[in-house]
Amino acid sequence: MLNYILGLFSNDLAIDLGTASILIYSKGKGIVINEPSVVAVKKDNRGKRVLAVGKEAKLMLGKTPGNITAIRPLKDGVIADFEITEEMLKYFIKKAHNRKLLVRPRVIIGVPSGITQVEMRAVKESAYSAGVGEVYLIEEPMAAAIGAGLPITEPSANMIVDIGGGTSEIAVISLGGIVRAKSIRVGGDKLDETIIQYIKRKYNLSIGAGVAENIKMTLGLSMPEDSQTTMDLKGSNLVTGIPATITVMAGEIREALNEPINALIEAIKQVLETTPPELAADMVDKGIMLAGGGALIKNLDVVLREETQLPVTIADDPLTCVVKGAGKALDDLKLLKEVTIQN
Questions:
Q1: Which residues pair with 224 in a beta bridge?
Q2: How many Å apart are CA 170 and CA 270, to the nearest integer?
Q3: Can you name the CATH fold of 147-186+258-318?
Q4: Which of 171, 218, 286, 328 is the most exposed place for a label (fewest CB within 10 A)?
Q5: What's the burial of 99, exposed, middle or buried (CB within 10 Å: 0-12/13-18/19+)?
Q6: Is 248 exposed, middle or buried (0-12, 13-18, 19+ CB in 10 A)?
Q7: What is the reported pLDDT for 338?
Q8: Positive or negative torsion for Cα 239, 241, 246, 250
Q9: Distance CA 68, CA 41 (A)
Q10: What does CATH list as the number for 2-36+76-142+322-339?
């Protein structure tokens, strides 16, 4: 009876615990949190202390004095720092929930499809420590497919490619289950890092992750006709240490990104090759749905279309697909039972 009464007052939450961002959907309210997965921590003789979380902490990245570090507690889609993840979850759940004492929400959390039992346990434990009542886990490609509006319970193939900050999740879904899936540690962060290293090698210029992300989204994967498009970059000259500005061309950024993009294409082809023929036939018409922040990289859909010879569609709001899909599962008990990971 007590659980029932508490349930009436609790706000169930769906959480997309991403490497780059954390999004929280509250039942009946929609998305209430969309902030960077960053925590600023101060170290002194009393130990570690959390100074800021989310947007506030991201502003401190690369700009903090020696005793303050801005930490991203998730790496490649999984928890790298348990203690800080717990603090971050606690902060965001409180912020999303404005909860009264005694009320412990049910939460559903999106996790990568290749997650291990140990990593799964870490996610659950950090959520319980943050003060939630029940924890459900849903594989990110499944949540993304639901959020993108794919008919996942029908007996036909739905292919989703969810490109996040730390991982890219590729899955073929039919009858409410994942038929084939692959999770690779190539995401937005890897592309940013590739651009940073390229600029460092070729121009002796050090640029920040924010500048690299801007290059990735603005120039992206240029087509031959756009390869001469230019962009000015500001950074620090590695030889003189003096701030400098250089000009890069779209064509060279496309070339620099070849390796990680080819790894993504290869993974998609591997999933397609191992998909049962009956379902592969469906994909000739239905094609591939792109979700996640990486779906917005300029011309990625065009490149994938050329490489796979399949139709490629970008989800309506790719950044929120995982959290919206998890939220829909939370609203539908039958669907929730069907799509959550039982462990």
A1: none
A2: 10
A3: Nucleotidyltransferase; domain 5 (3.30.420)
A4: 218
A5: middle
A6: buried
A7: 85
A8: positive
A9: 6
A10: 3.30.420.40
